[in-house]
Design goal:
This protein is an alpha/beta fold. 25% of the residues lie in helices and 25% in strands. Mean pLDDT is 90; it is low at 1-27. The structure holds fe (ii) ion (FE2). The site of fe (ii) ion has 8 residues, from loops.
Length: 270
């Protein structure tokens, strides 16, 4: 039996139970600081993609996230792009399936969310580029999809980014959500993004989807760019993860839920 078939046969949960004591250990460290605020992010559901059981993947995610949220309350949930797969007809269906997953649901547009901003706004009550603040934290959401040229891949809006970061320069923590990682060679925006980001040292993390196989964290200019694999789609990570972020007095703690087991815990001291 090859490795992938072996993993599928015994199931991810068994593997993580077997790894107790490593980064999947669900037992909290008594020295851990209290969590001051917690939120979650997931990406790439691809509702409507052919030859995928997107309804089942959505049901599994919604059920697992609600269960997690009951035990570990999240301030909000972000769906970080590619919620649907290309055809605008899928958007109202996906909305119906997802609208109750959390009372505060935020979204970003991915390259497969191929609808106009007017449709996006009327569905999610959120524009392509938006931001808000809660106490000493700010959250910035930007599209990386081009619905005007229909090229469907675009750099973040640099003017919006700079305006948002300037607006929140006195906040303790800023978090940015972009579906596509802006430092990919093919995007051609790394210099522009770096030129703005270097002026704002309160950016604690950037969240990216798009790369369905990527569950890693890449540090660029001292900022962690956090990937989460995928929820749906025809290819990608073995697990259908969502990422949890916890803010304590002196750390940003983050981990992936598989969606029922914790793995890949990372800590960032402030
Ligand atoms: Fe995707």
């Amino acid at each position: 039996m090859d490795r992938r078939k072996f993993l599928q046969a015994i199931g991810a949960t068994t593997i993580f139970l077997a790894c107790k004591g490593t980064d999947s250990d669900p037992v909290p460290d008594p020295k851990e600081e209290p969590v001051l605020f917690r939120f979650a992010v997931a990406s790439d559901l691809h509702w409507g993609e052919a030859n995928t059981d997107y309804e089942m993947h959505t049901r599994n995610f919604v059920s697992a996230f609600k269960d997690f949220n009951t035990k570990s309350s999240c301030g909000f949930l972000v769906l970080n792009g590619d919620i649907i797969h290309n055809d605008p007809v899928f958007l109202p269906q996906a909305y119906e399936a997802l609208k109750d997953v959390h009372p505060k649901l935020y979204v970003t547009q991915g390259n497969h969310d191929r609808v106009s901003e007017a449709v996006w706004q009327s569905t999610w009550n959120q524009s392509f580029n938006s931001d808000f603040a809660i106490d000493d934290m700010a959250f910035v959401f930007g599209t990386t999809s081009d619905s005007i040229s229909q090229n469907w891949l675009r750099c973040p809006n640099i003017e919006f980014l700079e305006n948002s970061l300037e607006k929140y320069k006195n906040k303790k923590h800023v978090f940015i959500f972009w579906h596509i990682h802006p430092h990919m060679d093919t995007m051609g925006c790394t210099d522009d993004v770096k030129a703005v980001m270097k002026n704002y040292t309160n950016v604690r993390a950037v969240f990216n989807g798009h790369d369905h196989n990527d569950e890693s964290i890449k540090t660029i200019q001292g900022v962690p760019y956090m990937f989460d694999g995928r929820l749906g789609g025809s290819w990608g990570s073995f697990d259908r993860n969502f990422r949890v972020v916890e803010i304590t007095k002196s750390e940003i703690v983050t981990y992936l839920m598989t969606p029922t087991t914790r793995k890949k815990l990372s800590r960032f001291k402030m």
